[in-house]
Amino acid sequence: MSRRSARAIVVAVASVAVLVLSGCGGAREREGPRIDAFSQVEQRAGARGGPPRAAPRWERVGKLAGSGPASERVSIAGGAIQWRGRWRCRSGSFRLFAASGSTGRRLLKQGRCPGRGEAQSIGTGGVRLSVEASGPWQLQVDQQIDTPIAERPLPAMRSPAARLLARGAFYGIERMSRGQVQLHRLAGGRLALRLEGFETSPNTGLFVWTSPAARPRTSRQAFRAPHSTVAALKSTAGSQNYLLPRGTSAREVRSVVIWCEPVRIAYAAAALAR
Fold first, then answer.
1. 134 and 249: one domain?
2. What region, left, alpha or beta, does residue 14 occupy, with left being phi > 0 and alpha being psi -120 to 50 degrees?
3. Are 199 and 243 within one domain?
4. Do 1 and 85 have their domain in common?
5. What is the pLDDT along the chain (274 residues), one digit of tens a residue?
6. Could you list the residue range(s) of the whole structural domain that residue 99 is in?
7. How many domains does the chain have?
8. Last residue of some domain: 117, 145, 173?
9. Which of 122, 160, 164, 166 is deepest in the core (most CB within 10 A)?
């Protein structure tokens, strides 16, 4: 084998390794240096000053529907990374136009019906959407943002029949993290978690676990405990609520773990004190 062929193979293998470890902060953190996915790092969102940034997520701006031509104005957040319109139509044809600020109307997407599709744009602020169609259609507009999520406590958490069972503070395992978590029993008996002031390293592929482990300190300890997956983490920064699966026993919830499934490491955990 020639040196040139051997070098090509090494480069190809390295490229595959980078792709495999790209989820959950494998090869490169957002705006950060290359890191080892399995090493402890001291990097936290917002550490460079300014407000914390979360992993980009999609949130709904609005949902439109009609039959035939229509025009509607939507407002895209000034700090949005991009926005998209996901459409479907039943008959005839469909064309979606957008105009923002001083820019003229431009065609974003067209298609035959019945059908569906998606159009993306990076304009922010007020956007005038125009639909040209000859039959029924639906259009959902979403924006991608990286600001902290700000969910209010569930109304059921404030019910006189609800109880705050336990609380704890997040600590980092593989990634620096902070924030508080509360375990609530709602009036109907179902359990719910609330994260407040939460922040961890921005990335995707993260999940919320509950665990009977009192205070897991390593990824191995967190994984070996008989954990339960609650849901995908909504955002890597901000306040958020999660309903636990029905039938979950409060005695079995002694800690909460933020788990990265693609590379199977625990980002953070919080021990619950009653």
1. no
2. alpha
3. yes
4. no
5. 555 554 544 444 444 444 444 467 543 333 333 334 443 333 344 444 567 889 999 999 999 999 999 999 999 999 999 999 999 999 999 999 999 876 788 999 999 999 999 999 998 899 999 999 989 999 999 999 999 999 999 999 999 999 999 999 999 999 999 999 999 999 999 999 999 999 999 999 999 999 999 999 999 999 999 999 999 999 999 999 999 999 999 999 999 999 999 999 999 999 999 9
6. 57-145
7. 2
8. 145
9. 166
In DSSP terms, which residues pair with 58 in a beta bridge?
A: 144
Tokens 């995908």 sit at which residue? 232
